[in-house]
Design goal:
With about 475 residues, the protein is mainly α. The chain has a domain of about 80 residues: Tetratricopeptide repeat domain (Serine Threonine Protein Phosphatase 5, Tetratricopeptide repeat), CATH 1.25.40. Helix 2 packs antiparallel against helix 3, helix 10 runs antiparallel to helix 11 and helix 18 runs antiparallel to helix 19. The longest helix has 23 residues.
Length: about 475
């Protein structure tokens, strides 16, 4: 009997401890589960969201499930609904910094000032994470809390004194304070670390405007036009969200990102999935572009033709088909498609350049000059058209097309606009001097171009410029060859 009582007491104690443990274990609040209307959604998106909602209902205490649901809601455009899911995930997994960080990202993109609370929570969990600190600083700056934001930017620079986004963040704060010398100093440091830092270029342009420095304003305003709409912050956490997207839009986004990064096989795989979901002219054109970049010309032509079948008057599709046909060797048919694209979109510089360049490949030098002249008559200030026009006028094998004086006039103008800091433009300027018979100046200019190419580490360009330099030293002009175009 005594042994039985001891056994009962032990079992009761074990049950009590288990009950206490269960009671103390955090549990998700299913009332926070958002009500999602899946009507009208692509079936694979609806199926994934339904599966995650069911999983959270079955295991409401699993913070990672709440977080994964939040990620999938966010990437499929339920941003507001993703926030309570990330908040629950942050509550349930109190050492995981991802979930408060994702909540901060969602709230920041919803223009909700509560983003700073969650960014701070993520940073508290991972104090050495520079990305979390940068996001917090940016959010604080947007709220007008400049001193606190400034301190966070300096914390980042204490770990990495060349952190371009932290430097441009400080530059923008000093611009807001009308401290233009410091704004310019930090912006220039940011550009020294990343020449494509849009925020830094914007600070320099705005500082020039405030200081009424017209030359500086023109320089940096021009640079802004060639940069992306916003700074690219490398963010592996956001990348992890993007891969969860299963909508046709996300397959297209990922496919085009792979294509622009040179991963053509991955691009083809992602873009093919768009067509598995829906028949779409843009998807055929995107997939055709991926095949074209990968050198699979027959497949490219097939998809460009399908795109045109769906949208016959789309100039971009006609131009792409023309390019692919020209690369296949069918120059006449290819040029006819590009010419049609040019007629539909005469102001499209990319199509004008495509037409002129393929005319040059076909050896139709006069027609190529006519195409550039037509483009410049509509876009007289376009530097790309001017650059290519000057190159043709200076180097065409057909003497009836060449015009050294006009080439030199155009090349001088675009070289001055670039402050003689672009080696490719200086290459055109040197060729123009050579066509005019001024070989001494041609050698001097190509020497400067070589110096700049060397500074940038572009070995291929340096090799090409060296071959030109050797020609000019022998007092010979440079001539295009059809196969080298």
């Amino acid at each position: 009997m005594k042994l039985w009582r001891q056994s009962l007491q032990k079992n009761c104690l074990a049950a009590f401890i288990l009950l206490v443990f269960v009671a103390c274990e955090p549990s998700g609040d299913l009332e926070k589960l958002p009500d999602i209307d899946l009507s009208g959604q692509e079936k694979q998106v609806a199926a994934k969201i339904e599966g995650l909602l069911a999983a959270v209902r079955a295991q409401p205490g699993d913070g990672d499930l709440w977080g994964k649901l939040g990620i999938n809601l966010y990437v499929h455009d339920w941003r507001k609904e993703s926030v309570p899911c990330f908040a629950e995930a942050a509550k349930l997994t109190q050492e995981d910094a991802r979930w408060p960080y994702y909540a901060g990202v969602a709230l920041f993109n919803l223009s909700d000032s509560a983003a700073t609370t969650y960014y701070q929570m993520a940073l508290d969990r991972e104090p050495a994470n520079a990305l979390f600190r940068l996001r917090l600083a940016n959010a604080l700056k947007q709220r007008g809390e400049l001193e606190t934001a400034e301190s966070h930017y300096h914390e980042i620079l204490n770990l990495d004194d060349k952190h371009s986004n932290a430097l441009s963040g400080l530059a923008s704060i000093h611009l807001l304070r009308d401290n233009y010398p410091l704004a310019i100093e930090y912006a220039e440091k940011a550009l020294a670390s990343d020449s494509r830092n849009r925020d830094a270029v914007a600070v320099l342009a705005n500082s020039a405007r405030k200081l009424q420095n017209q030359e500086m304003l023109e320089l940096y305003s021009s640079r802004l036009q060639s940069l992306p709409a916003k700074n690219n912050i490398s963010d592996p956490y956001v990348s992890d969200m993007i891969v969860e997207g299963v909508s046709s839009r996300w397959y297209r986004v990922r496919g085009n990102e792979y294509l622009s990064s040179g991963y053509t096989d991955r691009a083809i795989s992602e873009l093919s999935k768009v067509l598995e979901i829906r028949e779409d002219a843009v998807a055929h054109n995107d997939l055709g572009s991926a095949y074209l970049k990968g050198g699979k010309l027959a497949e490219a032509v097939t998809h460009f033709r399908k795109a045109i079948d769906l949208q016959p008057q789309k100039s971009e599709f006609l131009n792409n088909l023309g390019i692919a046909l020209c690369q296949q060797g069918d120059m006449d048919t290819g040029l006819s498609y590009i010419q049609k694209a040019t007629a539909l979109s005469p102001d499209n510089t990319d199509i004008t350049l495509s037409y002129a360049r393929n005319l040059m490949k076909a050896g139709q030098w006069k027609q190529a000059r006519n195409a550039y002249e037509a483009g410049l008559s509509r876009n007289s200030d376009n530097p790309y058209l001017a650059f290519n026009m000057a190159w043709l006028l200076a180097t065409a094998p057909d003497r009836r097309v060449r015009d050294g004086r006009k080439a030199l006039s155009i090349a001088t103008k675009i070289a001055d606009a670039s402050r003689h800091r672009n080696p490719r433009i200086l290459d055109v300027l040197a060729a123009s001097h050579a066509e005019q018979g001024d070989y001494q100046q041609a050698v001097a200019v190509i020497g400067k171009a070589l110096e700049l190419a060397g500074e940038s580490g572009d070995e291929n360009l340096s090799s090409l410029l060296t071959s030109r330099q050797q020609q000019y030293e022998k007092k010979r002009p440079w001539r295009l060859k059809m196969e080298a175009n």
